[in-house]
UniProtKB/TrEMBL annotation:
InterPro entries associated with the record: Metal_Hydrolase, Phosphotriesterase
Name assigned to this protein: Phosphotriesterase
Keywords noted in UniProt: Hydrolase, Metal-binding
PTM sites of type N6-carboxylysine: K137
Keyword Hydrolase part of the UniProt annotation: yes
SUPFAM superfamilies for this protein: Metallo-dependent hydrolases (SSF51556)
Pfam families reported in the protein's UniProt record: PTE
Cited Gene3D superfamilies: Metal-dependent hydrolases
Similarity comment: Belongs to the metallo-dependent hydrolases superfamily. Phosphotriesterase family.
Transmembrane segments: none
Length: 335
């Protein structure tokens, strides 16, 4: 029996149930948590968020992984309230969405320093609380992997190996290099999702097969960002795609025998902090995308694998890799 860290404490893997691996309670750019325009709207935020997650729960959903990293709206005490009210498990993360969102204080820090930071949030707690992260977020800056991104990737690999938690990435641009960095640090690629492989930005369906063949997971995790939803008032975001086009991409990987290397999620933001988006909810995973898959002939066993088995295997904390414990945790353990 394995365990996974949630905002209400560790739970047994068997309690995860249907899981969306890449979602957000409230994401915004660095500084959003200081903007009173959004945080003074907390009652409205709570109402909207609870409605969306209750709908997910009614449809059978039990767990979301909140991929909001350090400095972009992460608020574990708020998430605890949401989890208690809705009954949805929320797995929090350490790490940064990308180098673009790394707070200035951390931008010149060494790999060792960043690894210790992530290690601390996984083993001790996030931001002075006893809430422990259950995964690590890293990502590619706009324009491609930067030197800072690569430091963060290496640090995340060390912390992941030292604690047994997995890594989810933002954007699949430079996906081959991302995987190289993890392997250079000794991390098994089956602990990694190369995220947003289905987004328009940097789209490369052939890369999906390279990711799968190397043993990482392909993140089809912008489900519901469909061009058809755009309106003159709120256009579809630049990473949106036609619904059918995304489905074709997913089915190509499945038909090649790699359904076991895929994860599906929505990257929905229950209440965006400081930016507009088309109406989007994690419930679309179960209300729309799963029926779309079934209409294409995907059987119930594969659906269960996508929603339950793969997320459970991925999120379950593994035994630390001795080689990486010293690299990520020695300094933290001495504090």
């Amino acid at each position: 029996m394995g365990k996974v860290n949630t905002v209400l404490g560790p739970i047994a893997t068997e309690q995860l149930g249907i899981t969306a691996l890449h979602e957000h309670i409230g994401f915004g750019l660095p500084g959003c948590d200081l903007d009173t325009k959004w945080w003074e709207a907390r009652p409205k935020m709570l109402e909207v968020t609870i409605d969306k997650l209750r709908r997910f729960r009614e449809l059978g959903g039990q767990t979301i992984v909140d991929c909001t990293g350090i400095g972009t709206g992460r608020d574990v005490s708020y998430w605890q309230l949401v989890s208690r009210v809705t009954g949805v498990n929320i797995v929090p993360m350490t790490g940064f969405v990308s180098g673009d969102t790394v707070l200035p204080y951390f931008r010149d820090k060494s790999i060792e320093y960043l690894a210790d930071l992530f290690y601390h949030e996984i083993t001790v707690g996030i931001e002075g609380t006893n809430v422990k992260a259950g995964a690590i977020k890293v990502g590619v800056s706009r324009g491609g992997l930067s030197e800072l991104d690569e430091r963060v990737y290496r640090a995340a690999a060390r912390a992941a190996g030292a604690t047994g938690v997995p890594i989810l990435t933002h954007l699949s641009i430079n996906g081959d290099r991302q995987m190289d960095l993890f392997e250079m640090e000794g991390l098994s690629l089956d602990r990694v999702v190369i995220g947003h492989s289905d987004g328009k930005e940097g789209l490369d369906p052939e890369r999906d097969f390279r990711i799968a063949k190397r043993g990482a997971y392909v993140g089809y995790d912008t489900i519901g960002f469909d061009t058809e939803k755009g309106t003159p008032e709120v256009p579809a975001p630049f990473w949106a795609r036609p619904r059918g086009e995304r489905l074709d991409q997913v089915m190509d990987l499945f038909n090649a025998g790699y359904a076991n290397r895929a994860i599906i999620s929505c990257d929905a933001n229950c209440f965006p902090l400081g930016w507009a988006s088309t109406e989007h909810s994690v419930s679309e995973l179960l209300e729309i995308f799963v029926p779309d898959l079934k209409a294409r002939g995907v059987d119930d066993e594969t659906i269960k694998m996508l929603l339950i088995d793969t997320p459970a295997r991925f999120l379950t904390m593994r035994d630390p890799q001795p080689k990486l414990v010293k690299a990520a945790g020695e300094a933290a353990a001495q504090v």
